[in-house]
């Protein structure tokens, strides 16, 4: 099975061609979040046009409380 | 006291608040509002994909028209990690302010001075308004100021300890020499600690644990706010320096001491 790593965990790549589709599948609205593909920040407007492939490392980061 | 301005932004409240450890977003919101604080810190973490997406994210509770939001780089141990977090924060929320927090050791959470300076240099060049959390080292504070940080943030005592001002003498030297505002951060456990920092001449204080982990965080936020205002007013009132010998408040003449 072809997989990608999202936030440190393996996920099947199946059914996702780009980052927007992946976020949709994960039920994530990327507002006020940052998405990194292989250590490169992908701006929100480019999520739908950024293709993903097996082995990619994706980080989805949000704001939490902190001092 | 002179108005507090950081990176062109004027603050009427000298109390900054960290948003960690609050029991709920609503309690956090109330505590910030009640304190009148105009700058808060937040952190960045991975979205937990095993949990349902948050319907009420923390960030939505912070009114950006009233409050400057400063993401921190907590969790970073090296300059490149802190730089990565700063860029992510900018991409996620458009935030240009960054609190540099580089703590390689989980036992004491003291900041790495070398990595902090390295990260500060890069982030200043990238246009960030950099607020570095540092040990109370006057030489380091000066070096950071020279690379263009907006403030310096010496720690009172280790994060979350409530120990108060344990670095007083070094913080005093930083205050006396700094050309940028001095924010005393970390370890302030009681309103009196915050007041003491302001009385010493610090421009502001940053408090998180003492407020967020109090039984009544809203009340504690108010208590810190009052202490900070009391200290400011004392300075405005022209406090007199301490002296070693007594100076009678009641007249000593006119009765028993007269021959």
Keywords:
heterodimer, A: 67 residues, mainly beta, Ubiquitin-like (UB roll), 1 helix, 5 strands, B: alpha/beta, five-stranded parallel β-sheet, three-stranded parallel β-sheet, 36% helix, globular
| N-to-C SSE string of chain A, H for helix and E for strand | EEHEEE
CATH class of chain A: Alpha Beta
Total beta-strand segments of chain B = 10
Order of helices and strands of chain B: EEEHEEHEHEHEHEHEHH
Count of DSSP-assigned helices of chain A: 1
Shape of chain A: globular
Level of helix content of chain A? 10-25%
- Secondary-structure-derived class of chain B: alpha/beta
Give the strand order of the largest sheet of chain A, numbering strands 1, 2, ... along the chain. Answer: 2-1-5-3-4
Rounded to the nearest angstrom, the distance between the terminal CA atoms of chain A is 41 Å
What would CATH call the architecture of chain A? Roll
Secondary structure category of chain A: mainly beta
Average predicted confidence as pLDDT of chain A: 90
CATH topology of chain A: Ubiquitin-like (UB roll)
- Give the biggest sheet of chain A: 5 strands, mixed
Helical residues, percent of chain B:
25-40%
Description:
The complex is a heterodimer of chains A (67) and B (259). Chain A is mainly beta and 67 residues long. Chain A has one domain (3-62): Ubiquitin-like (UB roll) (Roll). In chain A, 10% of the residues lie in helices and 37% in strands. Chain A contains 1 helix and 5 strands. Chain A has a 5-stranded mixed β-sheet with strand order 2-1-5-3-4, with no helix packed on it. The N and C termini of chain A lie far apart (41 Å). Chain B is of the alpha/beta class and 259 residues long. Helices cover 36% and strands 16% of the residues of chain B. Chain B contains 8 helices and 10 strands. Chain B has a 5-stranded parallel β-sheet with strand order 5-4-3-10-9. A 3-stranded parallel β-sheet of chain B has the order 6-7-8. In chain B, α2 (79-93) crosses α3 and α6 (191-200) runs parallel beside α8 (217-236). In chain B, 45% of the residues are buried. The mean pLDDT of chain B is 94. The chains are: A mainly beta (67), B alpha/beta (259). Chains A and B meet through β3 and β5 of A and β4 and α2 of B.
